[in-house]
């Protein structure tokens, strides 16, 4: 099985890559990013690319994929909708155009195409367009994500948030299971989808992610 991962250096992407590399059913993990990253397994192939609006130059390296995990993202804080849309929407649709197999889009709790909140509206619109494609597509909407196995967010404020609230995670898992998952469970759930798991819904919240993991 061959899995392509966009955004492998982010917190979610790191978790997805880790679990894909650990799964014996996965033969090849192709990671795509603007920057170099450590290749820790003979199963991993890293592709450097800068223009994610046009993946045609690297299409051959992404061919014959069994699954595509779109984990690219950025914080909406301080950004306009025009600045936020390319990574969240445009590049996601381009990845779906070029890479075959099961497509898993990492969205977020609260995504809604009709929302007045910019990030929610853009993610919701992207979800709708991807789910309308004539192919096997799933959307994962994690809420609070617990970093595991030394993985950390690249966004400073998120790193502080996770360090300050880590002690609350066991409590949150009991009282609000729909909003809490981990990089490990999220990665495992995505791999399960790549391997053919067929949950009842195409949009998975944290509790459904955890069950699938």
UniProtKB/TrEMBL annotation:
Gene3D superfamilies: NAD(P)-binding Rossmann-like Domain (3.40.50.720). InterPro entries: NAD(P)-bd_dom_sf (IPR036291). This is Epimerase. It comes from Lentzea aerocolonigenes.
